[in-house]
């Protein structure tokens, strides 16, 4: 486990993830965010792909839940409903029936609304990995399990530990709808970033990131947080000469200047400017001042690159 934070942090993390104090803290954060952002922290627009509507729902101070709707059948699936109130409001406004919750991991800012939605919609199923102690879990998943809702909402779950021990990501198969696939990545991958390695080491996280890297370049990325500006500013420090990154940063600054949502990006874009998906890049190795050791295999070296990147990002975030 990569532990660069101070001991007090890990005590707080343990309380947050393993005791009821975590849920009490989460409810407090929900109340504060509702007061501060009554209409949500960002302005979002739905993306419609051949009758499949994906609606980012801004919750808490920088999270996104996603409501995914098959407009032909009025069936809906929700990803990571941390705050049930805005999610339920979205479902009611769209006039759709909630079939399931797809939960990426146990942290309350992704799972805090699971039980409330399950109570509200009795037939709603809650999917996730059993290793993560997800609230309200009814249908445990394993790596590469498929989940289908009707004839068009076809998801594949991938086991991607590192941020938590049971983290999952969900790929909406574009072939069933004649369009690009959509990846709901939780806290594994963000626009130009990746999650902290709370419950895994760099080798584990690298394997999970490589799962993302293996997906089709046209795949749309729907991350769990609005971190784009901060992430691209950090990427500028480690790859200052990356032209694609600079172009994306200027676009993000325009978006965030109007409080507009920055997702989705595509995996093709991410592979060009997201340093955490570029551990193979010689330019990045030079920028970090790293070289492969004589007795070090390629995968171990890339894990060391990722570990150094994450260490620098943690310092950047805390300064």
Description:
The protein has 319 residues and is an alpha/beta fold. 39% of the residues lie in helices and 21% in strands. It has eleven helices and 15 strands. It has helices spanning 7-18, 20-36, 84-94, 108-111, 114-120, 202-213, 228-238, 243-257, 267-273, 282-288, 298-318; strands at residues 47-49, 52-59, 63-70, 75-79, 97-102, 125-128, 139-140, 146-149, 153-159, 168-172, 182-186, 189-190, 193-194, 220-223, 265-266. The chain has a seven-stranded mixed sheet with strand order 1-2-3-4-5-6-7. A six-stranded mixed sheet has the order 8-9-10-11-14-15. The chain has a two-stranded antiparallel ribbon with strand order 12-13. Helix 3 (84-94) links the parallel strand 4 (75-79) and strand 5 (97-102). Helix 6 crosses helix 11. The longest helix has 21 residues, at 298-318. It is globular, with a radius of gyration of 19 Å. It starts with 6 loop residues before the first helix and ends with a helix. The mean pLDDT is 95.
């Amino acid at each position: 486990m990569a532990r660069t934070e101070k001991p007090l942090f890990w005590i707080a993390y343990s309380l947050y993830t393993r005791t009821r104090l975590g849920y009490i803290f989460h409810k407090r954060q929900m109340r504060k965010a509702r007061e501060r952002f009554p209409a949500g922290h960002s302005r979002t627009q739905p993306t419609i792909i051949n009758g499949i509507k994906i609606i980012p729902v801004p919750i808490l101070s920088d999270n996104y839940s996603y409501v995914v709707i098959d407009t032909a059948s009025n069936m809906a699936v929700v990803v990571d409903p941390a705050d049930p109130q805005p999610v339920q409001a979205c479902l009611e406004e769209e006039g759709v029936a909630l079939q399931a919750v797809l939960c990426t991991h146990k942290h309350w800012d992704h799972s805090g609304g699971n039980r409330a939605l399950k109570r509200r919609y009795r037939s709603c199923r809650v999917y996730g990995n059993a290793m993560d102690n997800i609230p309200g879990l009814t249908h445990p998943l394993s790596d590469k399990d498929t989940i289908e809702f009707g004839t068009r909402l076809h998801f594949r779950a991938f086991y991607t530990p590192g941020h938590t021990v049971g983290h999952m990501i969900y790929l909406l198969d574009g072939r069933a709808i004649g369009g690009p696939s959509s990846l709901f990545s939780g806290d594994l991958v963000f626009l130009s970033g990746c999650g902290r390695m709370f419950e895994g080491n760099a080798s584990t996280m690298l394997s999970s990131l490589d799962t993302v890297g293996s997906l089709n370049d046209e795949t749309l990325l729907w991350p769990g947080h609005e971190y784009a500006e901060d992430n691209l500013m950090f990427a500028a420090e480690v790859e200052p000469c990356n032209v694609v990154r600079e172009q994306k940063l200027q676009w993000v600054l325009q978006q965030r200047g109007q409080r507009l949502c920055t997702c989705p990006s595509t995996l093709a874009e991410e592979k060009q400017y997201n340093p955490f998906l570029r551990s193979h890049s010689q330019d990045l190795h030079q920028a970090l001042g790293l070289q492969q050791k004589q007795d070090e295999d390629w995968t171990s070296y890339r894990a060391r690159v990722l570990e150094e990147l994450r260490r620098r990002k943690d310092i950047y975030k805390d300064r």
